[in-house]
Amino acid sequence: MASTSQAPSSGAGTAHPDHLGHVIFIAAAAAMGGFLFGYDSSVINGAVEAIRDRYDVGSAVLAQVIAVALIGCAIGAATAGRIADRIGRIRCMQIAAVLFTISAVGSALPFALWDLAMWRVIGGFAIGMASVIGPAYIAEVSPPAYRGRLGSFQQAAIVIGIAVSQLVNWGLLNAAGGDQRGELMGLEAWQVMLGVMVVPAVLYGLLSFAIPESPRFLISVGKRERAKKILEEVEGRDVDFDARVTEIEHAMHREEKSSFKDLLGGSFFFRPIVWVGIGLSVFQQFVGINVAFYYSSTLWQSVGVDPTDSFFYSFTTSIINIIGTVIAMIFVDRVGRRPLALIGSVGMVIGLALEAWAFSFDLVDGKLPATQGWVALIAAHIFVLFFALSWGVVVWVFLGEMFPNRIRAAALGVAASAQWIANWAITASFPSLADWNLSGTYVIYTVFAALSIPFVLKFVKETKGKALEEMG
């Protein structure tokens, strides 16, 4: 997705109210990939203990099965930009929808542990594609005045997907009598949990046929008239769209296709701006946010909460995640990206430090003492709230905006891949770290949350209100 030029001098920047609804529909349909991203990422939370029991595996092997999808995510994220530049953004979405469907069916009907892992890798590849295509496509079709809010649709869809997966898991667990391995529709409950994703996967595929191709891609393959028509649909302004198309063409001709080689430079292998993108991605994951969504039911059960209640707390955490995301969507274009990131970092430090304190106490009759149990539960929700209203949204917005046009596609791919690798490191290490010292694990996450504050202050520049051409 090399070219995401938006030409402010031709009047682009705001959408007429009659057209804004259409733009919102397009962004929401594209963000359905984000919904599947969230759903597929977190649905495994409901199956962790059942997989451990059915296949009789220890924490280390279990962690690899849970985390292996993230390898697929990294590969999908690294290659999605190039695929989309060759065949278009919409075709890329349709490929992802097919892969999501295959993964859901395979994960629900595994022969053994190895093929369950394989189906999860396929689903991971689809997640990785969706993680890149969604925000980039939305940035390309959005007027600059609305780009931050429309860009945050991706994160909103992700957190809704997480919440829906937890609600579905909780409902299915109750239907199976509170047993993750209880019989449901001729399968074990955890298999049904993983298979339900077929429904949103098919919907994503259908929606991809209802939205237009990116005008930037159409111009890149010489389809000027079709691009002009789509620009009129999404911008809805009385401007010279021939001039708009010509301006975008000229900007694209000045650019070369971005490649990994274009990212090299400076004293430390990559250009400094690429390292900033990688840093944002790594900090987003190293605070341990995905522990809350991949392992929360296991975490609560480990400190004495019964399975049904632990699934319910996973769902309430997901609702807090949505609330925080809505707050971010409201303020991302008002107060800016950097202030939200800093506010979120401070809140995360508080929440994570309280969790570390609560988990430092010994269990009494298999449970945390009452006070520490409540502190842990409330602190977990505080952590998720502050993550959602800040880093959960602003990192995706930053990555869609911060890179110069000439390197945007390649840089976004590298940064997204770094995010998935960091996610894998946290996901694969948590079960073993928790066996070692649960409190110590949360101290590590607290330290990373604290380090994110000076990182933002020193290295991250505000992108609020700037046209994509201004990024450099």
User: Could you tell me how far the N terminus lies from the C terminus, measured between alpha carbons in angstroms?
Assistant: 17 Å
Number of domains: 1
The order of strands across the largest sheet is 1-2
Name given to the CATH homologous superfamily: MFS general substrate transporter like domains
Total beta-strand segments? 2
Rg, nearest Å: 22 Å
CATH arch. level architecture: Up-down Bundle
**Poorly predicted tracts of residues:** 1-15
- Give the overall silhouette: globular
Supply the number of helical segments. 22
Estimate the helix proportion, in percent. over 70%
CATH class membership: Mainly Alpha
Largest sheet: 2 strands, antiparallel
CATH topology: Growth Hormone, Chain: A
Percent of residues in β-strands: under 5%
Structural class: mainly alpha
Mean pLDDT: 84
The ordered H/E elements are HHHHHHHHHEEHHHHHHHHHHHHH
Attribute tags:
globular; 1% strand; 472 residues; single chain; Growth Hormone, Chain: A; 22 helices; disordered N terminus; two-stranded antiparallel sheet
